[in-house]
Design a protein that fits this description.
mainly alpha; 3 helices; 2 strands
């Protein structure tokens, strides 16, 4: 994994986390939680994509298909975990 690929992956995961926060709303705490979950999901998806050889939507050394899919799953789980009862 090269440094530019790592930075691009982190930028994509950050964009997904911020976009999810704008879509679902919430406080600054929610934004931080979404960003952390987005980064964790993206890089776990990258590792799983590399490990299992899942190469749909690849860009250089990044397995974007698996990474974005896992990132979105983590964001949905994060939203479910951050729900509060009213």
């Amino acid at each position: 994994m090269t440094i530019p690929a790592f930075l691009l992956g982190t930028l994509i995961a950050t964009f997904l986390g911020v976009a999810f926060h704008f879509w679902r709303g919430g406080s600054l705490g929610h934004l931080v939680f979404y960003l952390v979950m987005s980064w964790a999901g993206f890089w776990l998806g990258q590792v799983l994509g590399a490990w299992f050889g899942l190469t749909f939507i690849s860009y250089g050394p990044l397995h974007l298909g698996m990474a974005i899919l896992t990132c979105l799953i983590f964001l949905i789980i994060a939203r479910w975990l951050s729900k509060t009862t009213k």
